[in-house]
Design a protein that fits this description.
Elements: H1 3-13, E1 19-23, H2 27-35, H3 43-54, E2 63-68, H4 70-73, H5 83-89, E3 93-97, E4 102-104, E5 112-114, H6 120-129, E6 134-141, H7 150-169, E7 173-180, H8 188-208, E8 217-218, H9 235-249, E9 256-259, H10 266-279, E10 287-291, H11 293-303, H12 310-328
Parallel strand pairs: 1-2, 1-10, 2-3, 3-6, 6-7, 7-8, 8-9, 9-10
Antiparallel strand pairs: 4-5
The structure holds 1,3-dihydroxyacetonephosphate.
1,3-dihydroxyacetonephosphate is lined by residues 22, 138, 177, 260-262, 291-294.
Length: 333
Amino acid sequence: MNTKILEKTVNKMMVEPKGLLAMDESSPTCAKRFASVDVEDSENNRRRYRELLVTTPELNRYISGAILFDETFNQKMSNGEYFRDYLTAIDILPGIKVDTGAKDFSNHKDEKITEGLDGLRDRLVDYASKGAKFCKWRAVITIGSSIPSTACIVSNSNALARYASLCQESDLVPIVEPEVLINGDHDINKCNDVTKITLDTLFEQLDIHNVFLGGTVLKPSMVISGDKNSNRADAPTVAEMTIKRLLDSCPTNLGGIAFLSGGQSDDEATSHLNIMNTSNKNLPWRVTFSYARAIQQSALNYWRGKDANMSGAQEILASRAKACSDASVGSLS
Ligand code: 13P
């Protein structure tokens, strides 16, 4: 592990006023997103769509790194250039999702365990040799009447730590993503309690595995009411409770924090981030975004697979990326 390389990559990922574009939807997730706008799920359409995203004019003013799925990382654009090389050329760091998905957790109904550790060391060496600078691994924590279980939180945190340590061996910055799902009718206090146990367990595991925190980025969910809660907390409360949770649970020497949007509306995702950054000027780490849906969804809805809609979709994408960028420095108007 070369800590200087890792720190350099983290600094680039976290530079103001930028954040990360998550465009690493797995094939089944991409199929679902395409089906919602009547686009056929083919390799060519996935290439066309991702090409639309990365060729958006001035994307690099707002985006420091893009998380790719394996297919895109090894795919060529219509001009014959690899996506990963194009991104590097426009000063956007190429990153790669390396988990192989959240699968049913044995003996634990309604819970998931993220897989992908087998053979990971060799895959990371290959990605690094092709220019990847950082990786992502997502763990899923579900809130229900008697879940999450300790087994789910400990096993997923352990996998995240083993992944992170393998990444750093190859000088790749690990993004550790423990997503506490928004789905459910729970209130914000329940989300706060589950997020606390999840983050505390994760940092304990990262410590046990000697993961270098200065070369690590946390991608958390916000502390927020369940999407079916009848009395959802307002934006200032979400921002305040989220920052309080992070200050309480995250070591100050962590490289940076970049939120997922997790099913929040575009406005919620940007307004929550903006309030966090206007109300807290002296946080120990940069707090920015690593959104997929909250940057992409409105552009996808406009595109609907049609070439004629491409530049309109890119304008929408650029305006969403700008709003996220403004929110990441607390200057969203
Ligand atoms: P959303 O922002 O759509 O939640 O996606 C972020 C992500 O990368 C999920 O792994």
